[in-house]
Amino acid sequence: MTILRVLLIILAAIGAGAGAAKAAGEQPGWPDRDRLASDMREAGELVRQGLEKMLGSIDSALRAMPRYELPTVDADGNIVIRRRPPGTPNGNQREQDQTI
């Protein structure tokens, strides 16, 4: 959602600049500013929808990936990496107790 926030900030800054120019009595150089404003709103909405779809796809791909616990070494010296069951939280107690 960070990209969406950045986009909204940029669009708000553009809108604030246009509002300041209008308040100052300056006329923009565009002949049909109502149509331009409408087109910009439509473009912003399409960009927002596209970003939501993209972020939703990334989110579902990350949720579909299997998750694993930290590797452990058993008594025979084998490295064991256990798969977490789907739907378990990201961290387990061992990972939360470790510090870097």
Strand content: under 5%
Main beta sheet strand tally, sense and closure: 2 strands, antiparallel
Q: What is the β-strand count?
A: 2
What oligomeric arrangement do these chains adopt? single chain
What would you call the shape?
rod-shaped
Low-confidence segments, given as residue ranges, are none
- Terminus-to-terminus distance: 28 Å
**Relative helix content:** 55-70%
Enumerate how many helices there are, as a single number.
Answer: 3
> Largest beta sheet: what is the strand line-up?
1-2
Secondary structure blueprint with pairings:
Layout: H1 2-23, H2 33-64, E1 72-73, E2 79-80, H3 93-97
Antiparallel strand pairs: 1-2
Polypeptide structure, described:
With 100 residues, this protein is mainly α. The chain has helices at 2-23, 33-64, 93-97; strands at 72-73, 79-80. β1 and β2 (79-80) form a beta hairpin. The model has no long low-confidence stretch (mean pLDDT 77).
